[in-house]
Design brief:
single chain, alpha/beta, Isopropylmalate Dehydrogenase, 2 domains, two-stranded antiparallel ribbon, 12 helices, 18% strand
């Protein structure tokens, strides 16, 4: 039995999580294993109910389950709250409380979606790389931080153990792929980046079968767009990983295509990388694929069932090959399907 805590969150979160839950139920029926899904409020939805973005009850449930499935958080309704009470602050808090130090974001281009990207098909065809973003350190968590009427300040700091553990995960992943890691930093300007580079190279000595190279973050942003196929595994800091993985989203045609896994020593959380998209919430326009692909990552990394992960990816690919598109990946003038229709088609392919 696998126990999953579902925290749909805000905006389109409940819609895309519903799609992922439908896939989970189909898989449990097909393969004969039991999945228990327990839903809890989070973000703005939690604030409206309980006056806080992340309750102790929700946090404790996340600590006691096998995996957490998250939709999205935030929206204009809660933007005027003090910074420390905003939904995004709750997201940082849950990552910290669950000690989710590694964020894995694959950037894979489906052949059926070559025309959905703003880049030329010959540039992106065959793109398949994995970003390892350090998630609980760096400038998002460093102290001191704050602002007044005349100044704002944040601190970007990394401890040795924080760099070592994310680097090891990246090298281990590369050993199962094309054995190539690119570490991305800004060591020509930032001392913290030079420290990052030094530690990554020290860890690399334990993985002599993996090729390691360094790249400045500004060049990396350009190279991801210019020649994405050169990348296999990327490892980088919290801030740089946040930006670069969103750039990678445009290679696939939409952020609605990109899943993610946030992993720690004892816990794991799976979510699409897109936001809550309040402008389309409740309209059935959201793309559920990123969340469904996040379930595939759940089976691969938390449940150690890579064959089922492959099954999900194949169902997504078959659905796209059949011509179905949600609005975000449809060509101009092309008919699009709803969130529910896309989900139902993927479930049908899983059943087949």
């Amino acid at each position: 039995m696998y126990k999953i805590v579902s925290i749909p969150g805000d905006g389109i979160g409940p819609e895309v999580v519903a799609g992922a839950v439908a896939v989970l139920k189909q898989l449990s029926t097909k393969h004969g294993f039991e999945i228990v899904i327990e839903e809890h409020p989070f973000g703005g939805a939690s604030y409206d109910l309980h006056g806080e973005m992340l309750t102790e009850k929700t946090l404790e449930a996340c600590k006691q389950c096998d995996a957490v499935l998250l939709g999205a958080v935030g929206g204009p309704k809660w933007e005027k709250l003090p910074h420390e009470h905003k939904p995004e602050a709750a997201l940082l808090n849950i990552r910290k409380e669950l000690e989710l130090f590694a964020n894995l974001r694959p950037a894979k281009v489906y052949d059926a979606l070559l025309e959905a990207s703003s880049l030329k098909a010959e540039v992106i065809r065959g793109t398949d790389f994995l970003v390892f973003r350090e998630l609980t350190g760096g400038i998002y968590f460093g102290q001191p931080r704050g602002y007044d009427d005349n100044r704002g300040w944040n601190t970007m700091v990394y401890e040795r153990y924080e760099v070592e553990r994310i680097a090891r995960l990246a090298f281990e992943a590369a050993q199962k792929r094309d054995k190539k890691v690119i570490s991305i930093d800004k060591a020509n300007v930032l001392e913290v980046s030079q420290f990052w580079r030094n530690v990554v190279h020290e860890v690399h000595k334990d993985y002599p079968d993996v090729e390691l190279s360094d790249m400045y973050v500004d060049n990396a942003a350009m190279q991801i767009v210019r020649n994405p196929k050169q990348f296999d595994v990327i490892v980088t800091s919290n801030l740089f990983g946040d930006i670069l993985s969103d750039i990678a989203g445009m290679i696939t045609g939409s952020l609605g295509m990109l899943p993610s896994a946030s992993i720690g020593k004892h816990h794991a959380l799976y979510e699409p990388i897109h936001g809550s998209a309040p402008d389309i919430a409740g309209q059935g326009k959201a793309n559920p694929i990123a969340t469904i692909a996040s379930v595939a990552m759940m089976f691969e990394y938390s449940f150690c069932m890579p064959d089922i992960a492959t099954e999900i990816y194949q169902a997504i690919e078959a659905t796209l090959a059949s011509g179905l598109r949600t609005a975000d990946i449809a060509n101009p003038g092309e008919l699009s399907v709803s969130t529910t229709e896309m989900t139902e088609a993927i479930v049908r392919h899983l059943g087949a």
